[in-house]
């Protein structure tokens, strides 16, 4: 089973990266697709959103510095078909340490090699921290596709150029020549405001083939679910947010030929 690695990155904070990583992963898992979510953010929000406790030593920090295998960190979640490589604060030190290593951009790619080789996962989703530092850049070097979440807010597109220029640089430098922008997910859409609609229209005009048709609505239930350690499907399966992430998963399946 060939594995497709997606990274969800955007240097802007609070734009729905983790919410999308967790609930898209869970929605794909619901479709019987074996998914591995990789929490690459020292904040470990994806880890706690799935109700998994943070433990010192249980992150990719070790493997990134050459200690232990990523395979040994894989944890089964409460969601069938969804596994997790958790995170914890120590991973923050990797930002600095990796920068001093040889081939520093390719560390994560190497660490994920046994995961790809295992053939156990059809999809790997990496949840990145809100910075284009060493961890995010490593995820871009390791991924097949970049997924960008944009909040339907004023200045949403600010910073988009920067991340896309980084993609081009990694490609032209031969660090990841096959990396592609896989899609743009618009999050926290508020149908009552003109602003939300304008932002979506603007992105549609700029990147018509990249924007996903599904727009994720702003709903309180999506923001409550993580504090219960649950996906939106476990917390409130009838919520419009759950329906939206299911539709997004359907689009991802079709766009990337996952079934
Ligand atoms: P960071 O950059 O800190 O990692 P992030 O990009 O991962 O943030 P999230 O943590 O997913 O963003 O979302 C930021 C906040 O907005 C969180 O409190 C989350 O619960 C909330 N949120 C995300 N999506 C929605 C939504 N569709 N409706 C309502 N609240 C949302
Ligand atoms: Mg996050």
Structure description:
By secondary structure, the chain is α/β, with parallel strands linked by helices. 41% of the residues lie in helices and 17% in strands. It is built from eleven helices and eight strands. The chain has helices at residues 17-30, 45-49, 61-64, 91-99, 107-118, 134-142, 160-172, 194-206, 220-224, 232-235, 240-256; strands at residues 4-8, 35-39, 75-76, 82-85, 123-127, 145-151, 180-189, 211-217. The chain has an eight-stranded mixed β-sheet, with helices on both faces. A hairpin with a 5-residue loop joins strand 3 and strand 4 (82-85). The chain is globular and about 50 Å long. The termini are close together. The site of adenosine-5'-triphosphate has 19 residues, from helix 1, strand 7 and helix 9.
List keywords for this structure.
binds adenosine-5'-triphosphate, globular, 259 residues, 11 helices, 8-stranded mixed beta sheet, alpha/beta, 41% helix
**Major sheet attributes:** 8 strands, mixed
Helix content: 40-55%
* Beta-strand fraction estimate: 15-25%
Class by alpha and beta content: alpha/beta
Q: What is the typical, i.e. mean, pLDDT?
A: 97
Give a count of the beta strands, DSSP E runs of length 2 or more: 8
Identify low-pLDDT runs: none
Total DSSP helices: 11
Bound molecules: adenosine-5'-triphosphate, magnesium ion
State the order of secondary-structure elements, H for helix, E for strand.
Answer: EHEHHEEHHEHEHEHEHHH
Approximate shape: globular
Q: Span from first to last CA?
A: 11 Å
Radius of gyration: 17 Å
What spatial order of strands do you see in the largest sheet?
A: 3-4-2-5-1-6-7-8
């Amino acid at each position: 089973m060939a594995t497709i690695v997606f990274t969800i990155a955007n240097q802007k904070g609070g734009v729905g990266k983790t919410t999308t990583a967790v609930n898209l992963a869970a929605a794909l898992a619901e479709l019987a697709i074996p998914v591995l979510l990789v929490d690459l953010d020292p904040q470990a929000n994806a880890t706690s959103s799935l109700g998994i406790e943070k433990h010192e030593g249980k992150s990719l920090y070790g493997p990134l510095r050459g200690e232990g295998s990523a395979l040994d960190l894989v944890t089964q979640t409460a969601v069938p078909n969804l596994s997790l490589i958790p995170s914890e604060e120590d991973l923050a030190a990797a930002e600095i340490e990796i920068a001093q290593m040889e081939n520093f951009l390719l560390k994560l790619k190497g660490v994920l090699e046994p995961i790809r080789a295992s053939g156990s996962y059809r999809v790997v989703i990496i949840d990145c921290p809100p910075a284009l530092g060493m961890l995010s850049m490593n995820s871009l070097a390791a991924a097949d596709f970049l997924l960008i979440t944009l909040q339907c807010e004023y200045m949403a597109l600010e910073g988009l150029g920067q991340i896309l220029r980084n993609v081009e640089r990694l490609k032209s430098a031969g660090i990841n020549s096959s990396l592609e922008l896989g899609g743009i997910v618009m999050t926290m859409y508020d149908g009552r405001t003109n602003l939300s609609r304008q932002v979506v229209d603007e992105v549609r005009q700029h990147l018509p083939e990249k924007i996903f048709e599904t727009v994720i609505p702003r709903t309180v239930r999506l923001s409550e679910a993580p504090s219960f350690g649950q996906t939106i499907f476990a917390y409130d399966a009838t919520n419009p947010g759950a329906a939206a992430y299911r539709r997004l998963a359907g689009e991802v399946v079709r766009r990337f030929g996952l079934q």
